TrEMBL record, chains A, B, C, D:
<feature type="domain" description="Thg1 C-terminal">
    <location>
        <begin position="138"/>
        <end position="218"/>
    </location>
</feature>
<feature type="domain" description="tRNAHis guanylyltransferase catalytic">
    <location>
        <begin position="6"/>
        <end position="135"/>
    </location>
</feature>
<keyword id="KW-0479">Metal-binding</keyword>
<keyword id="KW-0547">Nucleotide-binding</keyword>
<keyword id="KW-0808">Transferase</keyword>
<dbReference type="GO" id="GO:0005525">
    <property type="term" value="F:GTP binding"/>
</dbReference>
<feature type="binding site">
    <location>
        <begin position="29"/>
        <end position="34"/>
    </location>
    <ligand>
        <name>GTP</name>
    </ligand>
</feature>
<protein>
    <recommendedName>
        <fullName>tRNA(His) guanylyltransferase</fullName>
        <ecNumber>2.7.7.79</ecNumber>
    </recommendedName>
</protein>
<comment type="subunit">
    <text>Homotetramer. Interacts with MFN1 and MFN2; functions as a guanyl-nucleotide exchange factor/GEF for MFN2 and also probably MFN1.</text>
</comment>
<feature type="binding site">
    <location>
        <position position="76"/>
    </location>
    <ligand>
        <name>Mg(2+) 1</name>
    </ligand>
</feature>
<dbReference type="InterPro" id="IPR025845">
    <property type="entry name" value="Thg1_C_dom"/>
</dbReference>
<feature type="binding site">
    <location>
        <position position="76"/>
    </location>
    <ligand>
        <name>Mg(2+) 2</name>
    </ligand>
</feature>
<dbReference type="InterPro" id="IPR024956">
    <property type="entry name" value="tRNAHis_GuaTrfase_cat"/>
</dbReference>
<feature type="binding site">
    <location>
        <position position="30"/>
    </location>
    <ligand>
        <name>Mg(2+) 1</name>
    </ligand>
</feature>
<dbReference type="Pfam" id="PF04446">
    <property type="entry name" value="Thg1"/>
</dbReference>
<keyword id="KW-0342">GTP-binding</keyword>
<keyword id="KW-0548">Nucleotidyltransferase</keyword>
């Protein structure tokens, strides 16, 4: 059987290597998660179990891809930032997006039963993935700011929306109507005056999303000594302002 | 919080729409499945459970993507052929590869326990994905022939290799050595004379791989009548020669 | 001087090879030719000298690129059709478009004084170029039909427009106004009834544009004999209907 | 004539916009200029007329493309650096490379007779073009250093090679043989000891190539006053070291 006769078809594969010296972001995004969260009775406005599972899946990705220096997640999405100099998969765009996306999905299903009482979800969940390039440090910071600002806007809205429904007794349509055209300040006011909720004291994981970074953490040795070990940790902090980047300046410098 | 100030970063996403009127293949491929199959004690040379699970996962993909007219799987890989005219995800390359890859992976983990006695695998399995374009009917046929020829070559090798080990008592290194430089005929001869195995009567799923296509199948109605329903069926047939394509000419014509 | 220290920058060049087995069209288009034609007093509605110079420049491209099997030109544009199988410049998109575009431009300036009485144009003319892929024979025919239909529509409009001005004494604004919303039949009628012009007897080069193909033509030998030689010829024929393609079926078949 | 029926073919054009916030270089390169320079009797090792014509053509490109902040030329090539933020042609790669390449070629032919006594070249010269992206200031500097190092290496070689032939009476093969394996120091020594030539006093245009930048230059006004005007000037300076960039820091900053 002449294998070689057919092998010419390999030449139809395109070379999709990313521009060198450029930040590579792979973002995975839940597909149809409005329906998925409803069918799996996610708590509203936020389901800590579901967010924790997202963080678990993202940790698997960072364990595998050593060149992901930071990941940021919120709602049903997660962004993975590869170092500018990464040579993972020769920087081939589809290799990066499909491997990250597949591992994230796989881990999400795999660890489901550690977070949800049901053995497995009602049907296989799907995430799509994309690769985006950012040339400068400012660009990659602005990308992450974009996602965190999105988290803030959506979470403030959802918190107010569901307070109006769950505590205020409104229908979804009524709640939507009430919030139409309101600004951030208006929503803070509704939460505080109607429901006694100070939005700024809501859990930071919900307001900020989750940042995954590698930190040296002390590990106790059998002999009583201590050594440092690199570990992936979750932080719920502001990444829009300068403070995070000043105290983590190693993230933006070539190593 | 000025969301708009950061939104410019969306402009960095590239437009990756596939050339129109061209066959789109998305192939998913097990990552590190040599190790994965060993750790999960896949039977050698072929594990019917594992292949059946692959077929199950691929069926999920075809159920979701109506424009996949044919899928072909063998070993730890599966190829999905989208109709030339598909407008799924506006033909965006990364959307197609990541969605297919994520769903395949998700279903693989999800249905694991229907095929393997263990509740779940020892760690989350990963598949990568890629999108390749083929302009002509001959090209797409040659692509599929390439994969099926690969299946044949590998399966004949593996069948002989493992017979030498499991039945012949050779070490892997001895078996590898014995097969070095042999042609197909030589391997057939070893199987027959040494182990009484006629390779041509081995199960077709192993020798040919699995073809998934949609067929109209009769379904019994409650009133005793019968109606036709489109269903995804598995076939273990030659797709290199003309016969399959002559009897399935609808696959290559624009619908 | 360490050359090697800087040579890494070559890795930033992207691989832009065109999909194999696909028609490659390079189209060059005059940049700012409305102004250019005015400044060089092109005759209206058509300047035979200018069109002939376009044909001369296109012939230079076909002489250089043996894999261009057909070229089609009209107004200030020219399309060059490379055989599906061409390996010219390894099918690199930018190499093809810039080489064709540069040679076309170069020849246009070079041969200017063979068509225009002035030694050279008032300033250097510019053409842009683009590479477009077409997978099927129908697609490449439809591409050429698109350009020839464009030629027809524009030329009928321009012929009527300039008749109204040059023979009818209208201002451009009046002529434009009179033609607003008219169909082909209306314009034919205006030409015939007002100016005695039967559009269908206008020169075919103007109505159809110019097709360049290679033909075997007989050449007289010194000894009185005759031999055939491949030559690039201009034809002003319909390429939308089937007739041209039936009598030139070699153009669409792999050679 | 149904134009719309064919217009779908426009959808086959790919979107090739360059990554934002990234330096864009378009480099044009003489095609077959070894032959071209021989047929037009370019002086060896350098023809000042030819280099001046290259500079003239490049100046035309910079006059047209205001977003080219710097151009660098040597031998038969020229690189045009577009500002990182340029929106020229919406940053479409093929538009940029073909327009620059066409204008450069056009001007080269157009101005030929201002530099060469013959009215026009013996045949139309051709330049190819390419677009390359560089994300950081260091990358774009390294790109330019790469080209200037190339200029130095080639010019030192050619100067010595042609001295051996024109003054030393060697054949080209003998000269080539003599230079095989020599380092820069060796060539400097040959030039000095054999031909009394101090390479470092050779004209800087030959040793450094030509840098085109925009400078404010004083212009005398009719009333006796003076005003500043932006003008494209030629400089033959080192662009590998820091000095040029320190005194021209505006080139690398966003304007």
């Amino acid at each position: 059987m002449a294998k070689s006769k057919f092998e010419y078809v390999r030449l139809f594969e395109a070379d999709d290597r990313c521009l060198p010296n450029t930040w590579i972001v792979v973002r995975v995004d839940g597909k149809g998660f409005h329906k998925f969260s409803t069918e799996h009775e996610y708590e509203k406005p936020n389901d800590i179990k579901a967010l924790s599972l997202m963080n678990r899946a993202a940790t698997s990705v960072m364990e595998e891809f050593k060149d992901v220096c930071l990941a940021y997640g919120q709602s049903d999405e997660y962004s993975f930032v590869f170092r500018k100099e990464t040579q993972a998969y020769s920087r081939r765009s589809a290799k990066l997006s499909t491997n990250v996306c597949s591992l994230f999905t796989s881990a999400f299903v795999y660890y489901w039963n550690e977070y949800f009482p049901t053995g497995k979800p009602r049907y296989p969940p799907v995430f799509d993935g994309r690769t985006v390039l950012y040339p400068s440090n400012q660009n990659i910071r602005d990308y992450l700011s974009w996602r965190q600002a999105d988290c803030h806007i959506n979470n403030l809205y959802n918190t107010t929306f569901w307070a109006l429904i769950l505590k205020g007794g409104l229908t979804p349509a009524e709640a939507e109507n009430k919030l139409k055209g309101t600004l951030s300040g208006d929503k803070n006011e509704i939460l505080f005056s109607q429901f006694g909720v100070n939005y700024n004291t809501e859990p930071e994981m919900l307001r900020k999303g989750t940042v995954l970074v590698r930190r040296k953490v002390p590990v106790a040795l059998p002999n009583g000594g201590i050594r440092e070990k690199s570990q992936i940790v979750q932080e719920y902090v502001d990444i829009i302002g300068d403070e995070f980047w000043n105290t983590n300046s190693h993230l933006l410098t070539v190593t």
